[in-house]
Amino acid sequence: MSLIGKNALVTGASSGVGYAIAEMLVKAGANVIGLCRNTSAVPEGVHPIACDLSDASQIDTAFAGLTELDILINNAGVAKLASITTGAPADWELMWRVNVHALALCSQKSLPLFPADGGQIVNVSSMSGHRVPSSGGFYSPTKFAVRAISDALRSELRAAGSHTRVASISPGFIDTPLLDIYFTGREDQLEETKSSMKMLTAEDVASSVIHILKTPAHIDITDVKMRCTEQAS
Predict the structure, then answer these.
(1) pLDDT tens digit string along 119-152?
(2) β-strand 223-226 against 165-171: which pairing, if any?
(3) What's the predicted TM-score (pTM) here?
(4) Which active-site residues does the annotation give?
(5) Measured distance CA(195)–CA(20) in Å, rounded
(6) For a pLDDT cut of 70, what percent of the chain falls above it?
(7) Pairing mode, if any, of strands 120-124 and 165-171?
(8) E strand or H helix at 154, and its extent?
(9) Residue 5: left if φ>0, alpha if ψ -120 to 50, beta else—which one?
(10) At what angle do helices 103-110 and 139-159 cross, to 10 degrees?
(11) For each successive 10 residues of the chain (233 residues), what is the average pLDDT?
(12) Strand pairing class (71-74; 7-11)
């Protein structure tokens, strides 16, 4: 399916995977809107809208100015090292607001803007939504929730007769600023991990997202897991 002229919204478009997805969408001929806090850092050709996705009222305001959408990329996410036993509840709440609540709210608000024959939602999740690593803490539960939301939304849409497609893509380690934040205080461990494997790049993940978007309308790719060759799980 051609992306030329399609209207796409990417959350977290100012860095990492979101930046790479937005940039590739522009090159594919799409009209791209980027929801992010740092509006000066989006790729060339992207129309930025300032939005703190941890604030539901700002999401409401951002969507109030939109009239048509074909594609929603729920990419924005927060990764904090916050265990269940000793983690800061404020970190739990932030991850829940951005990784879960904002994703669901953006999805809900996009649906009325999609064409009658359906749109496409892609949720950027994580391998931590398929298994819980030893340091998964509260981050993993938020990504398990993304899987559940994706499945629930797809089920509701089919029951309503909608052809809107819902995909989830779950990368393993990606060499982006988000990984640096997640390993704050464990910099030596991060360097050891980086030296032991060739991690995914933001462009690797973005390429897979573009593949999903270009798939013919009668094919619904629902869940993609990807990791670098050296990553065992």
Answers:
(1) 999 999 999 999 988 887 999 999 999 999 999 9
(2) parallel
(3) 0.94
(4) 139
(5) 23
(6) 96
(7) parallel
(8) helix 139-159
(9) left
(10) 20
(11) 96 96 98 96 97 98 97 96 94 98 98 97 95 88 97 98 97 80 70 80 97 96 94 82
(12) parallel
Q: Which domains does the chain have, with CATH numbers?
A: 7-226 (3.40.50.720)
Long-range pairs for 102-106 at CB < 8 Å and ≥24 separation? 102/11, 102/53, 102/54, 102/56, 102/59, 102/74, 102/76, 103/74, 103/76, 103/146, 103/149, 104/149, 105/56, 105/59, 106/9, 106/11, 106/35, 106/53, 106/59, 106/63, 106/72, 106/74
Q: The tokens of 223 are what? A: 């869940």
Tokens at 136, concatenated: 């998964």
Tell me, what's the pLDDT at 100?
Answer: 98
Token pair belonging to 150: 């994706």
Give the model confidence (pLDDT) of 216-227 as tens digits: 999 999 999 999
d(CA 22, CA 34): 7
